[in-house]
Design brief:
Blueprint lengths: L5 E2 L3 H7 L6 H8 L4 E6 L6 H4 L4 E5 L4 H10 L3 E2 L14 H8 L19 E4 L6 E4 L5 H8 L3 E2 L23 E3 L15 E5 L11 E4 L6 H16 L5 E4 L8 H12 L14
Length: 278
Amino acid sequence: MDPIIVHVADHGSARSYGHFPARAEALMERFWPGPLTIVVPKTELVPPIVTSGLDTVAIRMPAHTAALALIRAAGHALAAPSANLFGCVSPTDACHVAEQLSDRIDLILDGGKCPVGVESTVLSLAEPVPRILRVGGVPPEELSEILGKLEWSTAANDRPEAPGQLARHYATRTPLEILDEDDPGAEPRPGERVGLLVLAGAQCAERFAAVEVLAPSGDLREAAANLFAALHRLDGLRLDRLVACPVPAQGLGIAIMDRLRRCSLRMSGEYPERGDGA
């Protein structure tokens, strides 16, 4: 089981659940509330089930007013995963939650479209050198401005230290492939219905059954905000396969490519059947 992120409404509450080193202060001031999850040694208030038995806990202060109001109404932190089936494409709109979970939950709190799109960056401060465990809504370059040297530990992990470290994750049920710029595999075969995911535009778009453009301007923040909604739309068309053109590996493009790689990886040679809840 993945560790679960503990969501708090203020800095004081965060410190009651985790032991924050001095270098965390600048991060909390700049990026909280916002899409940064900080991993630190946990306090006795955090039960083992939340951390999957680890001695560290992942803590975040969300920026959405509805999320903060919910935490304050509960009177304590809320440990919760994203509102989707395990391993599937993350939701960025209430309709995505309804599509996957409407028969399993009693209530959906609709706060509108997620402005960032990709999940939070997960940063561990539990060792001498800060480590990025999951790239996300705060680009590595911005973290380096405060912390200097960073280590990375985002590869697949048999015992994940943070959410999103499984080799295959954020996955569509329709097979997805990442293409090179001039990869001939992008061309649909005769009779094949293929969906195309591209950053700013595509030549020969008429050859595809569907095309999703993440950001006509090429802006990576806009692309990140639109990524999962685009994948949901393509996946819902019951196409034969999806192809995605790579985006620049800088800023939020690093997080976008991380999600596409985990989505594209086949596990055990097959994808879950549609509608089976896998």
